[in-house]
């Protein structure tokens, strides 16, 4: 990652913050883009001070193509280039499908699916001469259906297909596109779901053959690999970091 410039959406907290920190410690310069602009800036300042690398925080709602473009512009303005992105911004709002309000459906699709496309599109335009690598954070829900998550599951499955389409379309530009799909990760998002009674920690541990929640560094390991030269012949793939969740089909 030495001197690579990577933009990370959703880098203010959870998985995105861990990925940003990891990339900086591996020598990258990181643009932390997040709806929470204050936390994005604070994370960037703390990480840059700790590692002696450069990092900037940019406020951004990835459901806005213009704001995604502004992130890409900021990356190139500050660091002179853009080598890759990690799209990690996301929301989780379980709700019964029969009563799910249309605006809630639309917001989920806007952020999780359209946002992933807008962020990738805006940034890829700056990688056309040099090539680059894109990693979308999807979920086991790209493959496995959960009740009360119609919009979330549909959006994540959409991003898994988007991964394949962009991979084959942009291969000739030298841009690789892959996805990392975690099972439940121990982050604020999961803690909020546990606190709201949507799922319990015991249920999660029982359902995962390796018997624990994923930790953010588990996801960062996979992302770092897919961004690196070690994955130079890998594109269009979804790598599930799920402790065996998707493989498990028994009682
Ligand atoms: N936590 C899990 O168990 C889990 C499992 C599978 C996949 N994921 C996915 O991983 C990603 C990160 O999840 P997390 O657990 O770190 O969540 P989190 O809530 O801890 O962090 C999400 C971040 O995204 C930002 N964000 C939300 N909407 C945004 C928008 N419109 N534009 C820009 N930033 C926005 C938030 O401000 C926050 O900083 C999400 O895409 C989520 O769907 C999470």
What is the assigned CATH homologous superfamily?
A: NAD(P)-binding Rossmann-like Domain
Mean pLDDT: 95
Q: How far apart are the termini?
A: 42 Å
Bound molecules: nicotinamide-adenine-dinucleotide
Please give the count of helices. Answer: 8
H/E element order: EHEHEHEHEHEHHHE
Gross morphology: globular
- Biggest sheet character: 7 strands, parallel
- Examine the secondary-structure arrangement and name the CATH architecture: 3-Layer(aba) Sandwich
Q: What is the CATH level 1 assignment?
A: Alpha Beta
Give the topology.
Layout: E1 5-9, H1 14-25, E2 29-34, H2 37-51, E3 55-59, H3 65-79, E4 84-87, H4 102-124, E5 132-137, H5 150-170, E6 175-182, H6 188-195, H7 201-207, H8 216-227, E7 238-241
Parallel strand pairs: 1-2, 1-4, 2-3, 4-5, 5-6, 6-7
Helix pairs in contact: 1-2, 1-8, 3-4, 4-5
The structure holds nicotinamide-adenine-dinucleotide.
Structure description:
The chain has helices at 14-25, 37-51, 65-79, 102-124, 150-170, 188-195, 201-207, 216-227, and strands spanning 5-9, 29-34, 55-59, 84-87, 132-137, 175-182, 238-241. It is α/β, with parallel strands linked by helices and 251 residues long. The chain has a single domain, classed as NAD(P)-binding Rossmann-like Domain (Rossmann fold), CATH 3.40.50. A seven-stranded parallel sheet has the order 3-2-1-4-5-6-7, sandwiched between helices. Helix 1 (14-25) runs parallel beside helix 2, helix 1 crosses helix 8 and helix 4 (102-124) packs parallel to helix 5 (150-170). The protein binds nicotinamide-adenine-dinucleotide (NAD).
């Amino acid at each position: 990652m030495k001197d690579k410039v990577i933009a990370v959406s959703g880098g203010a907290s959870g998985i995105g913050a861990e990925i940003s920190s990891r990339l900086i410690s591996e020598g990258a310069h990181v643009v932390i883009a997040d709806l929470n602009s204050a936390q994005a800036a604070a994370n960037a300042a703390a990480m840059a001070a700790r590692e002696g690398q450069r990092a900037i925080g940019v406020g951004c709602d990835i459901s806005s193509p213009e704001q995604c473009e502004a992130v890409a512009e900021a990356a190139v303005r500050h660091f002179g280039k853009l080598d890759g992105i990690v799209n990690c911004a996301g929301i989780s709002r379980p709700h019964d499908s029969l009563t799910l309000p249309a605006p809630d459906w639309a917001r989920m699709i806007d952020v999780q699916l359209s946002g992933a496309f807008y962020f990738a599109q805006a940034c890829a335009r700056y990688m056309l001469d040099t090539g680059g690598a894109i990693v979308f954070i999807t979920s086991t829900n790209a493959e496995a259906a959960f009740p009360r998550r119609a919009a979330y599951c549909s959006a994540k499955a959409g991003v898994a297909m988007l991964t394949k389409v962009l991979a084959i379309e942009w291969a000739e530009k030298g841009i690789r596109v892959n996805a990392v799909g975690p099972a439940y990760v121990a982050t604020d998002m999961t803690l909020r779901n546990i606190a709201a009674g949507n799922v319990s920690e015991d249920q999660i541990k029982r359902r995962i053959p390796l018997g624990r929640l994923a930790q953010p560094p588990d996801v960062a390991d996979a992302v770092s690999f897919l961004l690196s030269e070690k994955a130079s012949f890998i594109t269009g793939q979804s790598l599930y970091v799920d402790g065996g969740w998707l493989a498990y089909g028994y009682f």
